């Protein structure tokens, strides 16, 4: 069969433009890999006059008309956001088109419904580019590890926040200074809210948890904290105990008396410098997977940018195109486990706490009593004196997060505690 497979491209920004260019530059290789040529049928954009690099005959503002055209076989969606992306994908699927998307927000909110629509129509819905740019991650979780049981996924999935925290650790700068540098270099958007407040990472965590634990998880199920409250003091305290601070997406299967649950959270945490994720600097991403039989695996690479993301899009495009040529759709993810999600209050975590206290007899006992009264065990404590005051640095054992939060609230009311200067969760310490 030599008839070309016709592709509709929705969006032609940084990623869409890279996809369009690579489709042209790699046309010969793609034909050899798929078995049929790939041809762009049209490019849907809002303002055609802003895309002089695209042949005028390909541009259209009628996205619905494009994705439902009889001569279109596959649809690539890179416009982002919830609407009109959701409606366009559903229209494409109902018209019998397989879809490749990079839309993390949409998949995190409505992935179950989109997969159900694709399955009903007998088409594919692939979205490797939605979580970690060029890093092959979702397909290994969905296919390569399908015979294993994944216990935990921990990742750095936002390059902007990783760059900011890396610079804070390297230079001693505060959050505002590091953010300004990231913005100047183009790593942070003019409005960095989605990145620094953890919304981007939370959407990716929901997708990772859904695939890893065969359970429907949405962004609303993810506990989310950003990095804007991380101070230079927090980063310095981490270095003192051989740790660094990273914004982590943590997805874990937690065993309980009533069965397993899924806990999904995004927050800054201290991790030991010996942990593989600690060495991930700049705007790079990495995801650490722990599985029953496979053990520990790590995926690392460029998690954003036009060409890296376009690489993942084209990988999906080749996969769905091969399925199209074969006359069948690939197997989609299944949510057969249907595990309940565990709220952060009940999730076991550990805290690193730094306190300014009066340097008087009995203060350590008073502080220890506050921890004990809330059922929190202390793992390590260090005291440094300076004049009539002292600094207590405490690392706890694992305890329900609610118990740890209540302990911090109680410590703020202790007369001998002049201030709680640093509170961060800790991951990976023995």
UniProtKB/TrEMBL annotation:
Catalyzed reaction equations: L-homoserine + NADP(+) = L-aspartate 4-semialdehyde + NADPH + H(+); L-homoserine + NAD(+) = L-aspartate 4-semialdehyde + NADH + H(+)
- Give start and end of each ACT domain: 352-425
According to UniProt, this protein's pathway is:
Amino-acid biosynthesis; L-threonine biosynthesis; L-threonine from L-aspartate: step 3/5; Amino-acid biosynthesis; L-methionine biosynthesis via de novo pathway; L-homoserine from L-aspartate: step 3/3
SUPFAM superfamilies documented for this protein? ACT-like (SSF55021), Glyceraldehyde-3-phosphate dehydrogenase-like, C-terminal domain (SSF55347), NAD(P)-binding Rossmann-fold domains (SSF51735)
Q: Which residues bind NADP(+)?
A: 10-17
Source domain of life is Bacteria
Binding-site residues, NADPH: 104
User: What are the TM regions of this chain, as residue ranges?
Assistant: none
* Keyword entries, A-Z: Amino-acid biosynthesis, Methionine biosynthesis, NADP, Oxidoreductase, Sodium, Threonine biosynthesis
What's one GO BP annotation on this UniProt entry?
threonine biosynthetic process
Write out the residues that bind L-homoserine.
189
Which E.C. number(s) belong to this protein?
Answer: 1.1.1.3
Keyword Iron assigned:
no
Query: Which InterPro entries does this entry report, sorted A to Z?
Result: ACT-like_dom_sf, ACT_dom, Asp/hSer_DH_NAD-bd, HDH, HDH_cat, HDH_CS, NAD(P)-bd_dom_sf
* Function of the molecule: Catalyzes the conversion of L-aspartate-beta-semialdehyde (L-Asa) to L-homoserine (L-Hse), the third step in the biosynthesis of threonine and methionine from aspartate.
Q: Which family does it belong to?
A: Belongs to the homoserine dehydrogenase family.
What name goes with this protein? Homoserine dehydrogenase
